[in-house]
Amino acid sequence: MGNRCAVIGVGQTHYTTRRRDVSMAGLVREAALRALEDAGLTFADIDAVVIGKAPDLFEGVMMPEAYLADALGAAGKPVTRVHTAGSVGGSTALVGASLIQGGVHDRVLVVAYEKQSESNATWALSTHLPFTSSLVVGAGGYFAPHIRDYMRRSGAPDHIGALVAVKDRLNALKNPYAHLKIPGIDRAMVESTPMLWEPIRYLETCPSSDGACAMVLSSEKAVTGTPAWVHGGAMRSEPIFRAGRDTVSPQAGIDCAADVYRQAGVTDPRRDLDVAEVYVPFSWYEPMWLENLGFCGVNEGWKLTESGATALDGDIPWNASGGVLSSNPIGASGLIRFAEAALQVRGMAGEHQVEGARKALGHAYGGGAQFFAMWIVGAEKP
Amino acid sequence: MPSEPNHVLEFPGGYTRSTGPVIGRFLTELRAGRIVGVRTAAKKVLVPPLEYDPLTGEPTLPEFVEVGPAGTVREWTWVDAPRKNHPLDRPFAWALIRLDGADTSLVHAVDGGSLKAMRTGLRVWPRWRHDRVGSITDIECFVPEVTTIVANVRTEYTVTPGAALARYLDALTRNVFLAGRCPSCRSVYVPYRLSCPQCGSVIEEELEVGPSGTVTTFAINNLPDPRAPQVPFVSAYILLDGADIPIIALLAEIPATEVVEGMRVRAVFEGGAVKWFAPEREA
Predict the structure, then answer these.
(1) What is the rounded distance in angstroms from the CA atom of residue B54 to the CA atom of residue B46?
(2) Residues of chain B positioned with their CB less than 8 A from the CB of A145
(3) % of chain B surpassing 90 pLDDT
(4) Where are the alpha helices (DSSP H) in A155-232?
(5) Residues B125-179: pLDDT tens digits?
(6) Which of A174, A182, B190, B191 suits A314 as a labelling partner, its CA being 20 to 30 A distant?
(7) Is residue A142 part of a domain?
C-alpha cells in the first residue's frame, strides 16, 4: 500500500438548499480554509490539489477545476480532477491518498463540492439521446426497480426503508453541518409522504444540497495535529450493461469491500469496525449495502436495520452524521463519508461522535451502482 | 382607483422654484451622476440634504459628502397597481433607503421585480437615467444588487446511430429485436452490439429475441415524463425471450397496481419502433 497517509484536517460548509451568497469558488474555498485551519496549515503548506465533483452538466461549468485552481491556492501546483459520478468524492480522497502513499507529495488538499441550486440534477441525469427510450427519470427512477427487487428477494417488510429514513434524520439533528433537520421525524411522518418512484417515498430520498467538503492528507513525517491513519483504500467498477449483473448487490462492491478489508486486516466488518459512513441516498440502500459490504448474510440486511444495530447507540452505527439522506451535495457526498469516518476516529465528531471509535469505514458509490470507492481509517498507525 | 377628473387646475408652464445653495448642489450633483449629502454641526450626513438642521434649526455646514451610490432598504411598502404619476409602470416598492455614508434615509422607488424579492436590509443601487436634468427623477429607481446571473448553455448536436445501433433500429422497423451472442461467454445481448461488455470479445453472431418477455422488476413513477402517456407510469425491466440482459421500457395497457414481477409481456410496435410493452394475452 506504500507509505503511510493520514487525514490531518477536515473542513465542511453547512449543507443547505441554496448558498446564494457565494460563488462555486467561494464555496470550495470555505471548506478548504476550514480543513487547513483544522490542520494548522495554510495553502503554502500544500503540495497538490485534487478536486472532485459530479458531471459538468450538473452546473453547466466545463472543466471547473481550471476555474477553481485560484480559489484553492493551487497556482504553480498540480491540480487533478477526478470523475467517477456519485462515487467521485470517495475516489477524490483515494487519488489524493495515493499521491502520499506513492511518495509523490507530503501534503495534498482534496476538495469536492456541488452547488445543486444552480441547476437541476434530475434534468442532468435524464438527457436522453435520440433512438433510445429508457424512461429513467433521475436517480430515483433508476434505483427504484432494484430496490423493489431487493424487497422481493429478501422478503423484507415494507417499513424498513422508513426506519432508515428516520434514523439518519435523527442523527442529522446532532450534526451542525447537516442539511435536513426534521425535529420529531418518525415512521408515520415518512410513511405519510407520497411515493415518487414506488417503492421510494419522498422522505426516503436524499435532498438537493449546496456544499463542499475538504481534507488535508499528509505523509507520516508531515503530520500536524490529530491524525486519522489510512488503513486501506480501494476502488472498483463494472459495466452497467452486463449479462448476469446483480444490480441489487453488484460484484464490484463486493470485490471493493474485500480488497479494503484485506488491507486493513478486517475479517468481520460488523465486529472489527466501530462506525461506518456509507453512501445511502435512498433509505433502502442501507439494508442492501449491509449485505453487499458483508456486515451480515444475504437477505439479512433488513433484520440488522430493524434490530437497531445501525443506530447511533447500536453495535455498528451507520451514518452517525445523518448520511446522504440528510445532506447531498452530490459530488461532495462521497468525500463527506470519508471525512466523517476520519472525524470519528480522530474523536472530533462532536455530538454525533461514536464513543471510542478506533476504526471506521468510508464508502461511496456512483453511476448505476457500478463505481465503488472505500477506505478504512483508524486512530492507530497501520 | 381615482375617478376621471372633470376639472384641472394647472399653472401654465409650471412654477419656477429657486433651489437655494444646498438643494441646488444636490440636484447639480445628481445631474452629474453623483449623490451628495450635507453635514450638520453634529457631523451627521443628511441625504437628501437640507438647508437647516431639523434637530437644531442651525444652518447645515457648507460641506458636501458623496454617499452611496449603493444603500440598504430600511422600510418599504409594495405598490401593486402603479398610478399614472408613479415612477414605474409595473409593480414596485416605495422604500426608505439608507445610502452608504448617510445618516438619514432617502425615499425612492425600488424596482425589485416581485414582492417576494423585497425585504428590509435589501442592498440596492441607483438606476440612472441617460439624460439627466438635475432632478430626483434623474435616478429612475433603485434596483437590487446583482447576486445571480443566468448562464444559457446550449449545444447542438447531430447524433447518428453507430453501426450496431443502426442495424438494431433497422430491425425494429420490421418489428424484430436484433440481438448478438458473445462467442466466448455465450451471453445474448440486446440491443445488438459489436463487443461483449463483460469479456470484450467481438460479437458476430446475430439472432432475434422477443418480442415477448418477462418482467424482472419495475418502478411505478409518479413524476410526470413527456415520454409517458400518463402518471403514474410503469418503467419495467423486461427480459426478452432468448436474451440474457433485460431492457428497460414503458409498460402500459394495465393499471400500475396490477403489475407484478414475473409477468409475461409483449412488445407493441408503432411506426417502426416500440410504443410500449403490454401484458401478453392469449391469442
Answers:
(1) 10
(2) 217-219, 235-237, 248
(3) 71
(4) 160-172, 187-191
(5) 999 999 999 999 999 999 999 988 998 888 898 888 888 989 999 999 999 999 9
(6) A182
(7) no
- Whole-complex ipTM: 0.87
| CATH code of the domain containing A39 | 3.40.47.10
For domain B210-283, give the CATH number.
2.40.50
Q: Which of B186, B163, B178, B155 is nearest to B240 (CA)?
A: B178
Chain A interface, mutation test: which of B248, B251, B268, B276, most A Cβ atoms within 10 Å?
A: B248
Identify all chain A residues contacting B159, using CB atoms and an 8 Å cutoff: 129-131
* 8 Å CB contact of B223 and A145: no
Average pLDDT on B251-260 reads 93
Determine, for residues A152 and B222 on separate chains, whether the beta-carbon distance falls below 8 Å: no
Q: Which domain holds residue A65?
A: 5-120+206-378
Cell readout for A252 is: 464490484
Q: Per the domain annotation, does A160 fall within a domain?
A: no
| A327 touches A172 (CB < 8 A) | yes
Count of domains for chain A:
1
- pLDDT for the residue A137: 67
Report CB contact under 8 Å: B221, A134. Answer: no
Q: In angstroms, rounded to a whole number, what is the distance separating the alpha carbons of residues A162 and A187?
A: 6
The least confident of A131-145, A191-205, B69-83 is A131-145
pTM of the model as a whole: 0.87
Q: What percentage of chain A exceeds 70 in pLDDT?
A: 98
DSSP letter at A98 equals H
